[in-house]
Amino acid sequence: MIRIEPRENPSRAFALGIPVLSALIALALAAIPLLAAGANPIAAYGQMLKGVFGSVFAISEMLTRATPLIFTGLAAALAFRAKLWNIGAEGQLYLGAMAAVAVGSGLLDISGVLLVPLVIVMGAAAGAAGMVAPTYLKVRFGADEVVTTLLLNFIILIFLQMMLEGPLQDPMSLGWPQSAPILDQGVLPPLMDRMRVHSGLIIGLVLAAAAQFMLVRSVWGFKLRAVGENAPAARHAGINVNRSLFGVAAISGALAGLAGVSEVAGLKGYLTTDLSPGFGYTGIVVAMLAGLSPAGVVIAALFIASVFVGADSMSRAMGVSSFLADLVVSMSLLCVLIGGFLAKFRIERTGRRGAKA
Amino acid sequence: MMDLFNILVTESFWAASLRIASPLIFGVLGALICERAGVLNLGIEGIFVVGAMCGWMAVWLGAGLWGGVLVAALAGGLFGLLHAFLTVPLGLSQHVSGLGITLFATSVSYFTYRTALPNVSSPPRIEPFQPMDVPILSDLPFLGPVLFQQTALTWLALLMVALVWYVMDRTALGVALKAVGDNPDSVDAQGLSVYALRIWAIVAGSAMMALGGAFLTMSAFDAFFFGMVNGRGWVCIALVIFASWRPGKALLGALLFGAFDALQVRLQTEMGALVPGQVFLMAPYILSIVALVIAARSADYPRALLTPWFKGQR
User: Fold this and answer.
1) Cβ–Cβ contact A31 with B under 8 A
2) What residues in B contact A151, CB-CB < 8 Å?
3) Residue A162 belongs to what domain range?
4) What's the rounded Cα separation, in Å, for the pair A320 and A34?
5) Membrane spanning segments where (chain B) (predicted)?
6) φ, ψ for residue A346 (rounded to 5)?
7) How far is B70 from chain A (nearest CA, A)?
8) pLDDT single digits (tens) B55-82
9) What pLDDT shows up at residue A149?
């Protein structure tokens, strides 16, 4: 027989080592699909490393890919800390992007000093609204936010198509469903010449630092964690649970909205329906790998971005489907889940064999 | 208003409603079985993809249509087993594990499809299930076209409603299953294995979900596309709450959703000039949220849903 016993003092080394180990195991497991696809795994891993770290351009691409994941990872990490299941970051990302092009692509031709903050604030507000609404349905009617945020993702994507074929469509686009570009002075400036990495990354890093500080050091963060760990107890201790939930919902939605702003105003320039290849959902994996810690989100986002960029480059060179990256990302989520279990519990053999020994 | 009435009395409208409802019937029943045993299965969206891909591929490789159905169910059950392992003996977060299963199942399916068919521009087609032409019955006015010219998989879905209802309400297994989702301690006290009941319920429920996916590639369409599941799994998670975890109401919920979806397609063609088509496309998802909001207040969740249970810990 097997017994599961909680570990008395879960060590810090475990907490830090488990995510790293899980990520590495997921990468190692990728050898199976690589072999199945008829590729040499050693060569494939080499190609992936070269694709991520082989040149300044490769590193810039990786950082560009990590930028939206920092935002959506933070969005998931903070909400999940309060046990508010925001699975709607994908939709909130598009709400933020729509708001950004709505004000940033010609409605107001004002100086960049005003336009950039305006685009950012509008995008964050739109994203926040996208999470506050389902939180209201949860608090007021008891409608499960997992289901409502998931369904909202689909509603918002259809709404986006409607906007891009209607009010937000670029008159110069010859009928393509895309928005007009963000005005030059509204663009988030690039960080390096002739590279795609842009100042959205800096915003993401600053917000991660701020979130880490708020979560660990502030009263707000203390209440948030209390609500997540035991809502009835928190309520009993006089914490306004609903206010905490609405607060974290607004911040989580705003962060997801900023992912959209950063992609559209920092990278693409204009909005299409394929702005995000699932950054909202991948943010959940980033947050889990990070152990729901904002500082960890940055590291996890860099790792996941490396997997995507590396797999893309390997895929082009070796002809293996780039869905391999999604496979590695999903496997690292499952590995870190199991790893988290092993960090908290130990498995003991008991029963007949144990009794004789 | 006359237009609406004219749509509602046509046979083709009701036939389409049942056809659209069929994959959802499988999905809601699958979610219902898992949740009745106390485990939320958010892997449903990915398990739909697995069922759609595996069922299609098995037929494409020559397994025959029913062989494809079997392969889809087995593949779904396998991913269900993984979810069961993570959530039952390990007692991990059912939310995160389920989302992980969805991401994993989807990427496994897409990777397998892409690896097997690297360079196809148009997806290869199979000969799907054909509408059955039941002698005499299909010639009945109205009922004939609506009920008796559906494919065999729609009939399997209706049969599953009856089967799940029978097992849940009329057998000892059903009593044990419901008890394990309400009060696992009482099940344990009777000497039954909480773990075994929950694990098998998740495997069976997941196999059922995969049949919903198989319906898409083997009855509704004749090929596999990326993104073809398109939120149907999530709709089922909303519908199971609307159905208050009862098979009969699950059928009703799926049919209502199917009717609404069939209606929006027809309204879109009638009124497309006046309102953007996307308004109609959005409507079924909005309806699901509305249904959830209405049902949530009085929802009688299985009491041990989301709560892991460990032997020897009270």
Assistant:
1) no
2) 231, 234-235, 238, 285, 288-289
3) 66-295
4) 7
5) 12-32, 39-59, 65-88, 95-113, 147-168, 199-218, 279-296
6) -120, 150
7) 23
8) 999 999 999 999 999 999 999 999 999 9
9) 97
Inter-residue contact A344 to A10 (CB < 8 Å)? yes
More confident residue, A97 or A347: A97
Are B92 and A319 within 8 A, CB to CB?
no
What is the reported pLDDT for A1? 61
Q: State the pLDDT confidence band at A354, using cuts at 50, 70 and 90.
A: very low
Query: Helix and strand tally (H, E) in chain B?
Result: 13, 0
Specify if A178 maps to a domain. yes
C-alpha pair distances (Å), A193 with each of A190, A198, B51, B285: 7, 10, 48, 44
B104 with A321: Cβ contact below 8 A: no
Interface residue of B226, B285, B313 to substitute, partner A, most A CBs within 10 Å: B285
To the nearest whole Å, the CA of B238 is away from the closest chain A CA by 6
**pLDDT tens digits, one per residue of B106-125:** 999 999 999 999 877 788 99
**How many interface pairs between A and B have CB atoms less than 8 angstroms apart?**
131
Task: State how far residue B98 is from chain A, nearest Cα, in angstroms.
Answer: 10
Which pair of structure tokens corresponds to residue A1? Answer: 């027989």
Does residue A337 lie in a domain region? no
Confidence tier at B135 by pLDDT (50, 70, 90):
confident
How far does CA B184 lie from the centroid of its chain?
26
Read off the pTM. Answer: 0.94
As for how many domains chain A has, the answer is 1
In chain A, which residue's Cα lies nearest the Cα of B284?
A: A155
Determine what percent of chain A is predicted with pLDDT higher than 70.
96
CA distance B314 to B306: 16
Residue A34 included in any domain:
no
Measured between CB atoms, which of B110, B111, B234 is closest to A147?
Answer: B234
Which pLDDT does position B145 carry in this prediction? Answer: 79
Least Cα distance to B23 among B131, B157, B163, B206 occurs for B157
Q: Taking 70 as the threshold, does the pLDDT of residue A351 lie above it?
A: no
